[in-house]
Amino acid sequence: MVLESFLAKIVNKFCSRFVKDFKKENLTISLSGDVCLSDFELKTDEIKDLQLPVELKSFAVGKLHINIPLTHLSTQSIKVDVTDVYVLLGTPSDPKWDIDALYVSEQSKIFIMQLLLDLFAPPPVAPQHGTAIPSSVHVAHGPPKVSASAQMFTPSVVAILRNASIALERVHVRFEDGLSGLSLDAPTSFALGCTIKSVNVLPSTQTIGTQDHVKSAKLNGLAIYFKKDALIEKLSKEAQRAAFRAPFDAPAPATGSKDDVYLLEPLSADVSVQMTLPVAPDGSVRPTHIGVKLTVPDVRVNLTHAHFTYLGSFLDGVDRFDRFTLYRRFKPKDAGKGGKKNWRDYWRFAIAAVLIDLNDPVRRRPTWRSTLNLVLVGLQYTAIRRKVLPYLIRQPMDADHHFLQYREDFKHNAPHAHAPYDQALSLTIHKLPASITAFGDGIYAGVYGLARIAPAVAATAKSTTTDVRPPEPVTPALSSTETEAKELWHRQLCIDAMFRPVVVAKLRALAVRQVDHKQLTATAIAKDHNERKGVLTVTLVDATSLTKSMHLFPKMKIGRKGAAYTGGLVATDANNALFSQTFEFHLQGTANEGNVHMHLFDKWPMFSQFVGKFRLPLAALTSQPHTDAVYTIEAADPKTAGIQLRVLTVFHLGTSSSSLEATYKTSLAMMEATYPEQYAKKTHEWHSWYTAKEATTLQTLSVSANIGSIKVALVFPKVSTKGQLDHILLQLDKWRYQLIAYPMQAAMKQSFAIARIDVFHFVSADTMHKQFIQGPKVTKSPTLTPFLQLETSHAPKEPLQIKLRTSEMDIVLDIPVIFRHVLSIIEKTPEITSFITLLSGPVYTALTAYAAEGADSIAAPATSATPLPPTSPTSPPVKKRSNSIFGSFQKIFSDDDDKLAVPLPPAPALADDKDRSAEVSMSVDIGAVYVSIPSVNEFKKADAERIVEITVPGTKLHIHGGRGLPTEVSTNTQSLATMTHDWAWVLGQFEKIGLVLSQQLKHKTKPFYTKEMASKTKVQRLEYDLHELEKQLAHIRCVIRDVVAGPAKYNIDEGDCDTLRMMVRDMQPKKVALAPAPTKSPYLALLQQGMTLLKHHVHSGEPQWRLVWITEKLLHVAKLADRKKANEFPLATLQRVTTGEMTPALERKGSVKDAAKYVALFFKDADAPLSFECQSEEVSTCVAAALQSLVS
C-alpha cells in the first residue's frame, strides 16, 4: 500500500507540473501498478523560453499505459504502451526580443550546457590498493576502477533489458517551416516529418536447458517525408489530429511517381539480442556473451533538387536567427515614441557586433590573432568568475519553478524579473585591478580593436548605465567588497553576452576547476585536510523542518572532485523525511580529502531540482571515533530554508596500533543502537563501492547487420514530359556487416561485404534505364563472389590486419547522359557552395580545448619532491607540461589522445615481445575493370552497341606502414611506392605543396601587359583576346536573332523581345569617324551640352555658379547640385544678347574694369535680364555670339 501511494504522488506531481490543462479524470492508477494517462498534451512554455531556432509547438499523446510490478521488478515484465504520439515543431512564430527575455534564455542555455558537460564528463576513479599516490597529483576520490562492461551491464540494467515490454503505435513528428521558404523565388511553406507505424519490444525468452535469453524488437513503417504543404499550426485540435493521422490511413505513393514526397520510403526492421546470463554466487545476473542481429529488407532513399534547395534555405534561416539573438543585448535603446535616435550609438553597436563576430570561436575558424584574443578573454573571465563565485546564488523566477526558470543572481538581490545589467558597451571598458588578474585590460579597447570608439563609450558610461536599466533591488546594504564583486559580476554578464552558451559553459567549468585547484593547493599547504588512512561510514538518519512535499534523494562525496554516491528516493511525510542510508568511504589521507559534501535533490523526470547542501570537515570527523550531530543545509531556494539533517559518523583507522577505539563497528550499527525507533521503521540502505563481488564480465560481443538492398535515387530536373523522372539510381544488394569483440583480450574482428552494386541512368525521354556501373560483371557463368569484401582484425601488441577485395566491375560511359548530369550539377555550383559552407562546422578554438580535458590535466603540480611512479610498458610516457605561454599553445594544438587511452590487458607475449599495435598491414585485391563507350541510340529501346572497350587488369597490392612508420606499397614482384614517413606526414607535405603552388599562381604569374614582356608579344596576345571576344559576340547575336525570329519556340512573349532587338543592334560593329565633322559654332554645341557660368543676382547674395544649357526651345539655368529643378526661359522670348553692359545685378557686385567679361540676356516680359560672368573676354564674345544666333 505504501508503494502504491508513493507512486500516485509521483505521477500526480509529474502530471500537474508538465501536462497542459491536466484533468484528473484522464488519469487512472490501480493497486496492481497500472498507470494510464489518456488524451494529454505536454507543456512547452519553458522550452519556448529558450529562444531556439526550432520551436516545440505541441507534444500530444493519445494514450500512455504503464504497468510496473512494484513487488517483482526483477522478475516480471515492465509494460509500456504508447499510442498516437504527435509532435509538432516549427520556426518561432512570436519570439521575444526584449532584454529580459534574452537574458533568461541565455542563462538557461548556459545552465543546460553546464549540466550536459557534467553529465558526459569522465567519472573520477580512485587509485587501486597498493598503488603509490604522489601528493603532488590531484587524485579524485571515487570507486575502484572496474571494466566498462561491468559499469554498463549492471544487474538492474540487465533486469530491465530482460523484462521490459514496449509497444509504440503511430508516432508522427512533423516540422513546419513558413519562414525559410520566403527566400526562394516562389515563397513556399515546407513540411518535413518522420512517421513510425509501430515499434514492439518483447520480453526475453529463455532457451530450455541453457542460460541463453533472446529478446526481439520489430520496427514497422519508419518513413521520412518532405513536401510543400500548408501549415497546420493554427488549425483546431481535431483538424491537427486528422492531419497527423493521415499518413497512417492513406496508402504509400508509388515509387518514382510525380507525387512521391518521401526522403526515406517506409521500411521495416527486426532486431534480436541474444544474451548468456549466468547467475553469480551473490545472486546477481550479468551477461557473459551478447549477440545483436539487425535485419532490414529494403532501404529506399530519394534526394531531389527541392530537398537540397529547402535544406539550404533552412540552414541559412537558422544561421540568421542565431546571429539575430547574439549581441542584441548591446543594442541601443530608443528614446521612445516621437524621440530621436542616437545614430552614433547605433554605429558603435554595429561596429562592435561585427568585430566580436569575427572572433566567434564557433562560427569562425581560428587564426593566431583570434586564438590569442580568446585566450586573453578566457583568462580575464575565469579570474572574474573565481572572484564572484562565492556571491552568486540561483534565483527562482516564479513560484512554480523548474530547471529552466532559475537564473544566476547576486546573493543580496531581491527577486525581480529584470536583466541585471545594461546593454551599453561600457562595463568592459575599464581596466581591472591587478589584485584580480594580470590580464585586466578593457575587452573592447584592448583585444577586439575598438580602441577608437572606447573612449567615447567610456565618457558616456555613467549616463547610459543609469538611464537605460533600473538598479537591482538589494535587501541589505552592500559592503565595499560586495560592491566590487557586484561590478565584476556585471562585467562577467557582458562577456557572457559576447559568446555562445556552449563557450560560456566551458569557461565556467574551467573557472570551477581553477577554484578547486587553488583550494586543494591551499589545503595541502595549510594541512587542513584529512591525514589519516582508514574507513569512514556516514549515515543520514532523518530530515526535519520541511516546508513542502518533496521526493528527496542525497548525493555524498569526498572532496569537490570526488565521485558521489547517489542515495535512494525518500518521500516526505508531513514535515519530516526518514532517510536511513549509510555510505562507506575508504580514506587515503591525500590533499583532496578536505570535506564531506552532501547535496540534496528533489526528484524530477528530467533534471532533478537542487534543494541544498552542507559540508563536514573531514579532519574533525577522523579525529574522533564517532559523531552525532544535526546540520542545517544551505538552501538554494528560500522556500526550502531551515531543513535540518541528523548525521552519524564512525571512523576506524587502517592501522592496528591506534589511540582511537570506536565503540561501533559502523554508523549503521550506531543508528540501530542509538535510534532504534527510526531504524525499525524502514529497511536500511547500505551504499559501498568496496563490497567484494565476483561479478562476471562480458567475454564476447557480436553484432550482425543484414540489409537486403539499399537504393538511393538522385533526381534531376525533368527535361521531357514523357517517361519517368530523370535520375540516377544507386543500388546495393545484400549489404552485410559483422563484428566480434573480445573485451577481456581487447581484441576485435569485423567484416563488411556487398554482394552487388548497380548504377542506372533513368532518362526522362524514354522508359528504359541505362546501365552505368555493375559489379560483379554479368557473365555467362555466374559467380558467387561478392562485389566488395573488407575484413579487419586487431589484437594487443599485434599490427592491424586489413583485407580488401573487389570483383570485376563493368562501367558503361554514356557520354551524352553523363555530360547532361554534370551540367546540371555545375549549374547548381553556387547553391552547392553555400550549402557546404552552412554544413561545415568550424572547429573550436584553442580556448575551449582546456574545458574538454579531464581534471588531472588541468591541475598544476604542487610543490612536492615526491617522484612520479615509473611508467609501465603498456602505459604512455608521462609528459611534462610547460608553464610558459608557448607551452600552453603547444598543449592546445597537440594531439593528446594517447593520454586518454585505457591501458590494454596483458596479451600473450610474442617471440621478441615487441609492441606492433601501431603497425598496419593491408592486403588489397582489386578485380579487373571493363570500361566501354556505347553508340548513340535515341529511338531504339534495345541496348546500344559498344564502340570502344577498355580493360584494366586487376592487381594485388600489399601495404605496410603505421602511425609514425614509413609506408610501402608493393605487389608480389616489385615495390610500387615508398614513403619515408606515415600517411599523415605525407598528406601534410602535399598540403604545403598546394599552398606554395597557389602562392605562385596568384602572385608570381605575370599577365600579358607587364613591362618585361616584348611589345610584339603583347600586341599578339591582345589581338587574340579580342578575336575570341568577337567570336563569342557573334555566337550570342545568332542566338538572340533565333529567339527574336521565333519567340513562341522558347515560350517567350512577342512584346518581351524589344530589349533583345535593341541588344542585337547595340552589339553591331560601329564605324568611328577619324575626324569630327566641322561645326558652325563650337560654343553653340557646348551650350547644348551645358556650360558653367557665374550668375550675378539683382537683390542679395554673392555671385554663384550655375549650369546653363539649351534645348530645342528652352534655355535652362540650374544649380550645380540640383539639375532637375532648373529655371526655364523660352528661346522665342529672347530679344537681345549684349556684352560689356552693366546691368543692375552687375552694378551691385561686379566691376567696371571687368565689363568685357559680362554677358546679359534680355527676355520679353522679364523683370530683369540674366547677368553672367565668363572667365575671359574671348569666351564672353563667343558665348554671346552663340546665343545671339538663337534670337528669332
Q: Give the helix/strand class.
A: alpha+beta
Q: How much β-strand is present in the residues?
A: 25-35%
What overall form do the CA principal axes indicate? extended
What is the β-strand count? 44
Give the fraction of residues assigned to helices. Answer: 25-40%
* Number of contiguous helices: 28
The level-1 CATH class of the domain at 529-683: Mainly Beta
Low-confidence segments, given as residue ranges, are 125-138, 254-259, 457-468, 841-911, 1071-1079
Residue-averaged pLDDT, rounded?
Answer: 75
Q: Which CATH architecture of the domain at 529-683 would you pick?
A: Sandwich
**CATH fold-level name of the domain at 529-683:** Immunoglobulin-like
Question: How would you name the CATH homologous superfamily of the domain at 529-683?
Answer: C2 domain
Largest sheet entry? 24 strands, mixed
Please give the radius of gyration in angstroms: 41 Å
Distance between the termini: 120 Å
Question: Which key phrases capture this entry?
Answer:
single chain; 1192 residues; alpha+beta; Immunoglobulin-like; 28 helices; 44 strands
